[in-house]
Amino acid sequence: MARRILLLNTDLEIGGTPTVVRELAWRLQEWEGAHVEVVGLAKEGPLREQLWARGVKCTALGARGARDFPRTLWRLWRLVRQEKIDTVVSFLMHANTMAAALRFLYPRARYIQSIQTTQPWPRWHWIMQRWAAKSADAVMGPSAAVADVAKRWAGVSQFAVIPNAVNIKEFAENQSSRRQEKAGDAEKPGRLIRIGFIGRLDRVKRVPDLVQAVGRMEPWVQLEIHGEGPDRGRIEAEIQRLGIWERARLHGAIARPQEALAEMDVLVLPSEAEGFGLVLIEAMAAGVPVVATDVPGIREVVRNEITGLLVPVNSPGALAAAITRVMGEAGLRERLVAAGKDEVRRRFSWEGVWKGYVRVLDMSSRGER
Question: Which fold has domain 4-165+349-365?
Answer without folding.
Answer: Rossmann fold (3.40.50)
